[in-house]
Design a protein that fits this description.
single chain, alpha/beta, TIM Barrel, 10-stranded mixed beta sheet, 12 strands, about 35% helix
Length: about 350
């Protein structure tokens, strides 16, 4: 899993002037969470966190400085917290907040699918959960988090208000072109910008607020061809009745005619991620965000890594992408809050 000859093009973070050298900002973010892929309040384990040491060795070879969006269950487990301190020591990474509402106290809401989307909880309960998570992260790791990602990407207006109350200034929950409305009444991000933009509590999370106090750094989603403004509605049309009866969206994707792609080694092959990276840059994006979930680092915990071979493929995909991307363009690795300082 070596870095290859292209590593000479990779730069460490060098402050606000890093964009002036022509490099692309690359954020690597990990949803750092409990083992239980099926949501649970009981028998919660965090054994996958031990695997962060192996992952950190890969990051160190490349100079990647990841953001670990960390859940309450991880932060309150002493052994997991020790691992987190080890892999973030000396500024090697950033610890952000990742709120799983179903097992972050207070647990006053019913344990049901709709309530797993943070946006669906009462505003005061969202705030109370975020206050508890924030306090635990600060107590455990010695500094308050400033970057946030909602579990299941369940961001809503009231969540933005809670972020403000708790001192957050950066969110990275928005997944452009994706609608989760039919998934436990989740949010829709259809129509959201693919570039960083400002959020405010009085606006839909897809709508930029010019003077909004929270900066949204979207996850990297798009299509294998541009312009996205044409292919996004085309894809949604193929997914709608009556076209969905004929599975046209799936046929188009398998044929390579129209694929919706994310920068995630859990879902995508290296070639598709490199294609998406080129398309995003063609659309004026100045950052790329590679992301996955920590349970995928241990076989049998996530649907993306049933076996040790699957975990090895994930690592190979990450390094293949970094190697391929660094051959295409100079890169600057940044954490989420560092990216916000440059892009905001």
């Amino acid at each position: 899993m070596g870095g290859g000859s292209a590593r000479w093009m990779v730069r460490q973070h060098s402050g606000l002037g890093c964009m002036r050298n022509g490099s692309v900002l690359l954020i690597v973010s990990i949803d750092t969470e409990e083992d239980n892929w099926n949501r649970s309040r009981h028998d919660v384990t965090v054994e996958n966190i031990r695997e962060l040491r192996t992952q950190a060795a890969v990051f160190d070879r490349w100079g990647v400085r990841p953001t670990y969006f960390t859940t309450y269950q991880v932060a309150t487990d002493p052994e997991a917290a020790d691992v987190m301190r080890e892999v973030t020591d000396g500024g090697r990474a950033e610890i952000g907040a990742h709120l799983h509402p179903w097992n972050t106290p207070p647990l006053s809401e019913a344990f049901e699918p709709r309530n797993s989307m943070l946006k669906n909880l009462p505003a005061e309960l969202q705030r109370a959960k975020l206050e508890r998570l924030t306090a635990v992260l600060e107590e455990t790791f010695g500094r308050p988090p400033v970057a946030f990602r909602a579990g299941r990407y369940g961001l809503g207006r009231d969540t933005v208000a809670a972020l403000l109350r708790c001192g957050y200034r950066v969110d990275s929950s928005v997944s452009p072109f994706i609608s989760l409305e039919t998934v436990d009444d989740g949010p829709t991000f259809v129509g959201a910008p693919i570039v960083p933009y400002r959020l405010a509590p009085d606006r839909d999370v897809r709508e930029p607020a010019p003077n909004g106090p929270v900066l949204e750094i979207p996850l990297s989603y798009g299509f294998n061809r541009g312009p996205f403004s044409f292919w996004d509605p085309t894809r949604r049309m193929l997914e709608a009745t009556p076209f969905r009866w004929f599975h046209l969206a799936g046929i188009a994707a398998r044929a390579g005619l129209l694929k919706r792609v994310s920068l995630s080694p859990e879902y995508q092959a290296v070639g598709d991620m490199l294609t998406l990276s080129r398309r995003l840059l063609e659309h004026g994006v100045r950052h790329l965000q590679l992301s996955w979930h920590s349970p995928s680092l241990k076989p049998g915990l996530s649907p993306f890594a049933a076996t040790a071979a699957d975990v090895a493929r994930l690592y190979a995909c990450v390094e293949g992408y970094l190697n391929g991307l660094s051959r295409l363009m100079p890169l600057t690795f940044v954490t989420t809050s560092e990216a916000a300082a440059v892009l905001g």
